[in-house]
Structure formats: C-alpha cells, structure tokens
Here is the input.
Amino acid sequence: MSRFAAVGALGTAVNLLIMAVLVQSQIDIDYLVAAVVAAEISILHNFVLQERFVFRDLRHGSNPWRERLVRHLLFNNAEALARLPLLALLVELMHVWALLAQAVTLAIAFVARFLFVSRVVYRPALVEQSFRGRAVRKHVKIPA
Here is the structure.
C-alpha cells in the first residue's frame, strides 16, 4: 500500500498542478472543467506508474493489460465524476479555494481507489489443485 500511496501522492501533485495551470491561465477555464482535465491526465499517469512500480508482480497473474486499463479508466472516471458535486459544494457553498477542495476530494477517495485497484484491476488468479495434484491457475470473471 505504501507504493500505491506514493503513486497516489504523485498523481495528486500532477492533478493539482494541471488544475492550477488551467484555472490560473489566460484562457480563464472554469474550475470544474479544469478538474475534469486534470483528473483524466492524472488517471492515465497513475495507471502507468501502478503498472510499473506498484503491481508489477501481479500483472501476469491478473487480467490482461487492456482489461486492466479499461477497468482502471471506468472506475476512476466514475469516481472522478462522483467527486465533482462535492467539489462544487466545497467551492460554491463553503467558499473553499478550488485547489484545496480538489485535494480534499482526492484524499477522501483514496481508500476506495486502493480497494478497487488492488481487488479488481490486479486481482490475482486463483490457484486450485487439479485432479493430478498440480496447481492450476484459474481466473474468475467478474461480470461487467
């Protein structure tokens, strides 16, 4: 979990940096649009680092690469979409600075992301004994 947290911290920094650049740029991008753009970039960034540094030992015993990417994108985009109303609530009603509000929503969602990624995206293959006593790998398909 410590490597996942390190990747998450770096992803959070990337997310907040991109959001800050977009919000404070001359184009005057709305903070919600900037949050979505920053989320998309940091989601892909985190997937690459998780593949390389966090779950590299589980890559070959879990789902194929494309399936891991699709599951990662689907969950993280749904999670990012679910965070938007909280972000708007913090900024519009509670008058929290948009970057701080984004950091708060990212921190709140950390545990959910870890549980999903570790248990669904990189789920290890089950090992069963065959009738001859040899270990057999078996993948359990999760209905989409």
